[in-house]
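Researcher: Here's my situation. A collaborator sent me these components and asked whether they could plausibly form a single complex. I don't have experimental data yet, so a predicted model of the whole assembly would be a useful starting point for our discussion.
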Amino acid sequence: MTRKDEIREKAIRDLQQYEVLMLNGHFDFGNGFHGTLYLNPHQLFRYPSTIWRFAQDLLDVLPASIVEATEVVTGPVTGGALLAHTIAGLLDSRRAITGTPTMFAPFMVDAYRGPGLSRFYRQQIAGKHVLIVDDVRNTGQTLARCGTIVRSAGGKVIATAELYDRMEATTDAGAPNFALAEYRAPENYAAGACPLCKAGVPVTTF
Ligand SMILES: [Zn+2]
């Protein structure tokens, strides 16, 4: 097992310890479905030290070529932007102090139009090598949209990365993607046909 495999395996355990990822429960999602897996990204950001730890681990599993080439780290508000800000800072702590500092750029997210980048940041990333990050990858559409915007602003998307990949992505940002942890949720059940309810397993509360 390589060191990167060890880091990724430990990340799954750490996500559970910090209650970001809850497995083997009986969750009522409030939308008519029950299931055994619950993901709570808010737990990543409640204590800043938590995201610093996971960001270090994500940097450790990224290829050295990506780490070296990154000039801007960007991500969608809120989780992706907090992670991007942390990673941009951590990157410089691993580089020569004489180098150009790594830049951070947040994507603002509109409920209807999705992620967008302000004119200031569009100008900042023109001609730069950009790493796009997010806390969780679901369908991949958010990262893909961010990638399109980076390119339209003249930036080059060198990779996307996330702390947790649900392994349900149907699209990508046209660049290699790297996940610290990946885990596919087992199927959910309609509340009326939930085998856990039938077996009398109490609904998990937390
Ligand atoms: Zn149930």
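Model: Some features of this prediction you could bring to your collaborator: Residues 26, 34, 194, 196-197 surround zinc ion (CB under 6 Å). The first strand starts at residue 21 and ends at 22.
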